[in-house]
Every structure is written in structure tokens, then in C-alpha cells.
Amino acid sequence: MLDLTSNAVDLTRAICDIPSVSGDEGHLADLIEEAVRALPHLEVIRDGDTVIARTNLGRARRVAIAGHIDTVPINGNVPTRTVDIDGEEFIWGRGTVDMKAGVAVQLTLAADLVAPKADITWIWYDHEEVAAALNALTRIAATRADLLAADFAILGEPSNGQVEGGCNGHMRAIIRTHGVRSHSARSWIGENAIHKAAPILERLAAYTAREVPVDGLVYREGLNAVRITGGVAGNVIPDLCEVEVNYRFAPSRSGAEAEEHVREVFEGFEVEVIDMAEGARPGLDDPLAQEFVAAVGGTAQPKYGWTDVARFSALGIPAVNYGPGDPQLAHHDEERVAVAQIRDVERGLRAWLT
Amino acid sequence: MLDLTSNAVDLTRAICDIPSVSGDEGHLADLIEEAVRALPHLEVIRDGDTVIARTNLGRARRVAIAGHIDTVPINGNVPTRTVDIDGEEFIWGRGTVDMKAGVAVQLTLAADLVAPKADITWIWYDHEEVAAALNALTRIAATRADLLAADFAILGEPSNGQVEGGCNGHMRAIIRTHGVRSHSARSWIGENAIHKAAPILERLAAYTAREVPVDGLVYREGLNAVRITGGVAGNVIPDLCEVEVNYRFAPSRSGAEAEEHVREVFEGFEVEVIDMAEGARPGLDDPLAQEFVAAVGGTAQPKYGWTDVARFSALGIPAVNYGPGDPQLAHHDEERVAVAQIRDVERGLRAWLT
Q1: Predicted ipTM?
Q2: Is the entire prediction scored with pTM above 0.80?
Q3: Which of A13, A114, A329, B248 has the fewest CB neighbours in a 10 Å radius?
């Protein structure tokens, strides 16, 4: 049984040592459910291997605080151990960063904060590290969106103990040119599709990405070729060239607007959108969010990579990332979290919620 | 046994019906050797599966007339048959165009012309349809170049019964750009190698190919991308982009000059030459060649594709292509040669040589 009254550091080790690679979260979910059902101030809902626990204090505001309980596969890096690096204490092992230290902080506070100043919906969910279709938040948003309802959401993803707001959207598209094949000895009979792609690369090279303030954070965009292919054989004029572009766009821009922008940039060319995920506004203009940033300290930063905060954003709920651990070490064989960051994040959340 | 006294049309069918896909020319070479050894006016040399037969009349000039006896693999299109298309008679089947009709004309004339006005070296060789390293002319040029010695050479490759002079050279090179990988969510940390390739495609698109008069024929050049590749993954800024270009250059330009030109065009970029074959001058300023063109009639055309005439050119021997058959039908499943072209080419060669 999990002891939620110990402390977030010991609890981090305890839940890291319970295997819960995506698809095998059942046992950990059972233990979490059992522990929070023992707390009379929380209403508990089990949905698949997701455990939701919430206060119902009639507060003016409700905050959702979420963390996924699955990890990517272990690689000889569990059970956890504590290590000392240059005088700093770390917990070493799979899941310590992504993101069981964050979950341990949440479980500790869920047990401890019987009268927070906002109502809280704690969400510990499964299948985050795999395809979006398997992600429990995808399922719950579709089947029981009421469980996610809140005025503000915090995702405990590793952010080095800093507030990272929202996230950029991203899309991928194929920009295509067509030509006519011919033998390269008589190239004037054909039309070279690769040569026709010159303006596509010119426009990409000349493109100046925007820096867009959204709710007080500046999101840096990017439009990049990530793949180019063309060619039939060494003696054939190619009849097709494809440039795959990746567009990262500020959360103030909708998917439709992003597509319109890419079509404008590549006007005159065939454009096929093959992937689209809208971003998430940080919502830092919300008073609750401003109190949150003030309480936890530091300066909020924009999150560039896409995370599950976008799911809350899609439900109209401003959301930020805030958790212990260096995101660069997530999924890394040397994954490890600084004990001090666990304590800092616990202190920050506690200060804001009480 | 081959009957060289029949006629070139019947002989075309006879030798097409003897399988001789590259590597299996031995039996056909045996039959050709046997037939020409029966002719007292010819000295016969067998070298591998190549048969060389020559007159030694002490003429002021010697002409080499060559044809390969192998074919690409058959595809249900032998034995040959005669067909009538819109009132015109064709021999249908593998090898009829490329190039046994030409060989049949040569064998007929080899038997018939006991006192040509120039000495003739007839060359029927193996392994033309495969890698250059296997080509019998490669071997003989290296081991017994004296056997190829001549003042002028005619290759009986299909040219629709027109004289096609020399051939363009060709080279292939990789033009390369380098960048720095990064996650596409933070593209400003990396350097996009695909974007850096924009000037390569611009220069190709803007390139105006030369038209170069050589010995009275105008060779049209071409510089083309034939392949482009770049990209690591949909969310990674690529660190490498490669553009493979194919340069077809007039026979008045050496391989070294061609390389220098390509390096100039792509100045500032990494250029790696991966394939190089110099062209062949048509040598139509040679009196013997002028007599030849006058005798066979029509207007000489430049040959754009690379052929074995370049091997003679490399030995300092002007050379042209002249043979029956539409080169567009070579290797085609509907390969077929017009009977009238076989007769025209036989008549043309005979007129010039007597």
C-alpha cells in the first residue's frame, strides 16, 4: 500500500519501483485508487486505469492537476537508487523525471490539502507515452469531459520546476511539384520536377518565423523542411518532387489559420496537410494563473513542444506545465530527478493552493 | 550454319532466333566465326566471344564497322515473326532493333564486298548490354587496341537509318549541403540543410544549356537534378541534403572540363563526381566521313545518348552511329524493325564502300 503521508521524495522512489510501462499501469492504478479512497475529503472515480480524485468544497474556482502514471520501457534503470552528483542528491531511474516525481508531489498534496483555496480535481492517467488514440485523456475527453472540467489546469510534466505555459501547435504538409519524365540525354523533352521545387526551398530559406505574444508569453514559431525526395533513376528527368514541411505555430493561431498560412506561403504549389495538432494557450492572463505563477516563483516560459496541456486547451481550459525534472533527461537511460526540485515543486503548489 | 549469301532481312530473323542474351553469346559467336572463316578475303580473329574479320587489301584507309551480338533478356518476343503495320512490313522480336538487323547487314556485306574501296575491320562483339567493365570493346581496347585501329568507325546501333554522329559525354555528381540537427520544436537551435539547398535548385532552374557545334553537328547539352534526398524524421531539422545532378556535355568538352564547369556552377557547395564518361566527336570533318554521309544520304544528326562510338573516339578514331531500327523501340516489349530500313542501310553502306 502506498503511504501518502510519508513525503514526496520517498513516494517518488516507491512508485518508480512499481513497474508501469504503458499498458501495465493496472497495479499502480489499483494502489493509487486504494490510497486515495482512504481519504474522506476526496471523491474518487476510477475510469479504466485512470484514477480521478476531487474535492467538492464549493469553492469559486476548480483546478485540474494531472499526471500520467505510465513510463516508457525500463532499460536496466529500475529499481531506483539515490546518487550524489557534485554534492547534489538525485533519484536515478526510469520514470523519475517523466513523470513519477510529479505524480508523487500530487499524491502527497492530495492527501495533505484537505481545505485548499480552490477545489481540486486530481487526475492520474494511463497511456500517455504511446499513440494519442490510446491516451486516457483522449478517451475521457470524449466520454466524460465533465470529469476534466476546471477553470485552470496544471500538468505535472517535467519542466525543471519552472512554469511552462501552453504549447505551440504543429502541422506537417507535403508540398508537391510535378513534371514530365524523359531520358536525361534528351532532357528538353521532359520537365524537371526537382528544378520546379526551387521556389519552395527559396521561400523556406527566406521565411522569417514569427515571435507571437500570447497571454504574456512569447511563442517562437518555425517553418521547416523536414524531408525532401525526388528522382527515378540516374538517367531519368524526375516527374515528382515532394517537400515535407513542419510548421510549429503559436497557440493563438487555429489549425485552420495555420493551414491557410502554409497554403499562402506555398501559393502556386500543391499542398497536402498530413498531420495537425493545435497548440494550447497558456492562459496566464487568468487571475488564478497569475496567482499561481506568483506563488511558485520564477518567470513563466513558453512550452515549445506539444504536450497534453493542449487537450485541456481544446476543452477551453487554460493549462500550464509545472513539474520536477529536466525534460532533456526524460526517456534517457540516465534519467534522474534532483531531490531539491521535487521539494521545490511541492512547496510551490502548496503555497498556491493554501 | 549461317547463310551469309541469303539476304540481310532473312539473316536478321535467323540470328534473332539464336538466343544470345548477354553472357550467352557463345553459340552465335561460333556460328559467325564459322561463316566468316569460310570467306577467303577475310582474316578472322576470335577474342572471347568477339569475332573480328578484316580485309587486308593495302587500301589507303581502314574503316571499322562494329555491332554487338548480345541482347537484353527476351520477354516472350522470340522467335521472331513478320508483321504488317499499316501496310509496312516489320520483323518483330527481341534484338531486331538492338541490334541484330544491323549485324545482319554487316554480315551480308562482309561476305559480299570482296574488294571494298577502303579496308574494313568488321567487329561483332559481346556484352554490350551489361556493365561497361564486361563490354568486349573495353577488354579489346585494353589488351589488343591494334585490332580496333581504323581511320573511321561506324557503329551499327539503331538510328532509324540516319547517320548520328559521335555522342555527348555524361557525368553525375552529388551536390551536398550540411546542417545541424535539432528538434523541429526548437528549429532555431539547428541549421536546416534542405533550406541550404535552395541555391542549388535555383541555379539548376536558371541554367541555360549550351548548344555546341562540333565538326558540323550541334550538340545540345543538359544539366539536371535526377535525385534529391534529405530528412531524418518528421520532427527533426535535417543535417544533410544531397542533390544528384546529371550533366550531358558536348564531345568538344573533356571530362576534366565538364567537371570544372559543374564545380563552377555549384561554387560554394561540396561537389562529388560519382560517374564520368567522355563523349565522342562525330569526326564529320574527315573526308572519309563526308563521303560516307554523302553516300548514305540524309542529314547527319548528333547522337545525344552515350554509345560505344565513344570508345573509338577515345582511341582517336572518329565514329558515327548508323543502323536500322527506331532506338525508341530498343529493349521494348514491342521491339520491331522495318524491313525497308534494313534494306536502306544495306544499300547505304554498300554505296559508300564500293
Answers
A1: 0.77
A2: no
A3: A114
